[in-house]
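Input (structure):
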């Protein structure tokens, strides 16, 4: 078990530290790291997801329908629960509540999911990464924007127009339409020729390494401040949400493979979209940056715990 955990997480640690070291040496600044992230999101990851899904037998995807359902429940249900608790229990305004909700319910599946899930679940990893990316971009992002935009004084739009515009912008992103197109091709019986797969995988294989390196450089540039909300956000993201879903799936006797895959996916640290939104709408910037930093650093321990607990 220890060997499996080390095999899955050591590359994450080493690559993050290299990125952090590069940032410390000023070899890469935050803007340059963002360019690397852009390359991953526009080219490397879409190619990886497209080739990975299209290379997976349709029967295997149908068999993993529970993975679709439970990742959706975990992310959307987690977002709703966090929003309600933050809004009504902690008396946050809608903007801050939505930021905390997407920070806790939105795992960085495209970045950290690739190297970790790929080791633990070599057959089903692409499915989980695709589902997590789609739910994040097609559900959590539009809903978050609805609250962020609706509550600003600069721009006043209806909730319907905000969601429609966000969905349109999401659907034109390669990381969204590439896996959808791959699913459509599978349904109509199209198989990717073997000689074509290498052309897609060559750049796609760089996804995990480049993304983690860029995250390490960005983390060095963030202004970190530990506070009670940051600690609560991190504990909820890294421990409570995956644990709650794990307990529910265990009670319902969900098969072990699906249970493990969903739990590890939800235990992936927070996505950078929360920081992007915080900076763009000038609210909770330090809290979101600190949550991203602490969630990513501690994920080595917390994800290791989930991997050990689920017995991968």
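Output (sequence):
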């Amino acid at each position: 078990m220890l060997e499996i955990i080390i095999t899955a997480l050591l590359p994450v640690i080493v690559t993050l530290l290299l990125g952090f070291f590069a940032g410390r040496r000023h070899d890469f600044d935050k803007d340059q790291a963002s360019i690397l992230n852009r390359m991953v999101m526009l080219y490397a990851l879409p190619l990886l997801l497209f080739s990975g899904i299209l290379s997976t037998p349709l029967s295997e995807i149908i068999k993993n329908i529970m993975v679709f359902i439970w990742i959706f429940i975990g992310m959307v249900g987690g977002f709703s629960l966090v929003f309600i608790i933050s809004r009504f229990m902690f008396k946050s305004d809608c903007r801050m509540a939505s930021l905390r909700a997407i920070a806790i319910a939105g795992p960085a599946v495209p970045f950290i999911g690739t190297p970790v899930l790929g080791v633990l679940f070599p057959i089903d990893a692409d499915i989980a990464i695709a589902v997590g990316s789609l739910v994040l971009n097609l559900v959590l992002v539009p809903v978050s924007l609805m609250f962020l935009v609706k509550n600003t004084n600069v721009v006043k739009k209806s909730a319907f127009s905000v969601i429609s515009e966000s969905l349109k912008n999401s659907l034109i992103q390669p990381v969204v339409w590439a896996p959808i197109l791959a699913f459509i091709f599978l349904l109509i019986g199209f198989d990717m020729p073997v000689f074509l797969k290498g052309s897609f995988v060559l750049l796609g294989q760089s996804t995990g390494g480049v993304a983690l390196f860029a995250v390490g450089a960005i983390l060095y540039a963030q202004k970190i401040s530990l506070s009670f909300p940051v600690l609560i956000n991190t504990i909820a993201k890294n421990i409570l949400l995956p644990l709650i879903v794990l307990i529910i799936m265990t009670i319902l006797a969900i098969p072990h493979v699906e249970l493990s895959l969903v739990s590890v996916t939800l235990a992936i640290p927070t996505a950078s979209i929360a920081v992007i939104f915080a900076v763009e709408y000038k609210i909770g910037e330090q809290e979101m940056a600190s949550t991203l930093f602490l969630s990513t650093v501690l994920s080595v321990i917390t994800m290791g715990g989930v991997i050990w607990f689920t017995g991968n």
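Notes: The chain has 15 helices and no strands. The chain has a mean pLDDT of 85.
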